[in-house]
């Protein structure tokens, strides 16, 4: 295991992932399994670990490998960082952009609800 590898119990605890903060705010442009050389987790039998991008504050913007079962709370807890830490400026910028995207998505969600309620009220007012 390299110095960036971990076998902490569970991906969320090992990577700092929390709720929506850990979810990717953008679609991946590369399949998480499309990389070489292969990194294997510690499961029995070992499996190829997907490479993800961290969106949590702890390792924001850094790519890492994690056990394929980590996202559903199972697996061996394998986590290995791929990238070195970002400069503080880039980490803060990515965090600000991520937070603004989540804020805009929340506003969009509320706007859609208002439109739906208005449509519902409009169709029922005519009856």
Description:
- The longest helix has 38 residues, at 88-125.
- The protein has helices at residues 11-15, 19-22, 88-125, and strands spanning 5-7, 51-53, 63-66, 78-81.
- By secondary structure, it is of the alpha+beta class.
Q: What sequence of helices (H) and strands (E) makes up the elements?
A: EHHEEEH
**Structure class:** alpha+beta
| Radius of gyration computed on alpha carbons | 19 Å
> Looking across the biggest beta sheet, what order are the strands in?
1-4-3-2
> Mean pLDDT, nearest integer?
80
Q: How many strand segments?
A: 4
Poorly predicted runs are: 1-18
Helix tally equals: 3
Report the helical percentage: 25-40%
How much of the residues is beta strand, in percent?
5-15%
Task: Give the termini separation.
Answer: 69 Å
Globular, elongated, flat, extended or rod-shaped: what is the shape? elongated
Main β-sheet description: 4 strands, antiparallel
Oligomer: single chain
Give a short summary of the structure.
By secondary structure, the chain is α+β, with helices and mostly antiparallel strands.
Show the helix and strand layout.
Blueprint: E1 5-7, H1 11-15, H2 19-22, E2 51-53, E3 63-66, E4 78-81, H3 88-125
Antiparallel strand pairs: 1-4, 2-3, 3-4
Q: What labels describe this entry?
A:
4-stranded antiparallel β-sheet, alpha+beta, 127 residues
């Amino acid at each position: 295991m390299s110095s960036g590898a971990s076998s902490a119990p569970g991906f969320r605890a090992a990577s700092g992932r929390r709720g929506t903060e850990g979810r990717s705010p953008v679609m991946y442009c590369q399949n998480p399994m499309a990389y070489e050389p292969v990194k294997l987790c510690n499961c029995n039998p070992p499996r190829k670990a997907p490479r993800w991008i961290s969106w949590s504050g702890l390792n924001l913007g850094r790519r890492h490998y994690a056990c394929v079962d980590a996202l559903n709370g199972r697996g061996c807890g394998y986590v290995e960082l791929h990238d070195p830490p970002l400069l503080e400026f880039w980490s803060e910028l990515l965090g600000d952009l991520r937070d603004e995207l989540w804020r805009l998505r929340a506003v969009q969600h509320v706007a859609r609800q208002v439109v739906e309620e208005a449509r519902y009220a409009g169709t029922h007012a005519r009856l």
